[in-house]
Specification:
It comes from Lysinibacillus macroides. The protein is α+β, with helices and mostly antiparallel strands and 67 residues long. The chain contains 1 helix and 4 strands; from the N terminus they run ββββα.
């Protein structure tokens, strides 16, 4: 389960899509960029079960950003 999920706009112009995200997963901190097409670019290490984590991130972004 993802914990302490946070996101902020990638660009100063908040009308442009793109966000930096960070969260904890299995007691490790991860960071990435979430692009407008839903692509996730990891800025550090890649979490285990990457596909499962990506699904959780997409759900969180849909809830928080695209509501």
């Amino acid at each position: 389960m993802i914990q302490h999920f946070s996101f902020k706009p990638l660009f100063e112009n908040t009308q442009l899509p793109g966000w930096t995200i960070s969260f904890f997963y299995q007691r490790e901190r991860y960071a990435a960029e979430y692009l407008k097409d839903g692509t996730i670019q990891w800025t550090g290490s890649i979490p285990p079960n990457e596909e499962e984590v990506k699904k959780m991130i997409h759900e969180l972004m849909l809830y928080h950003v695209y509501d």
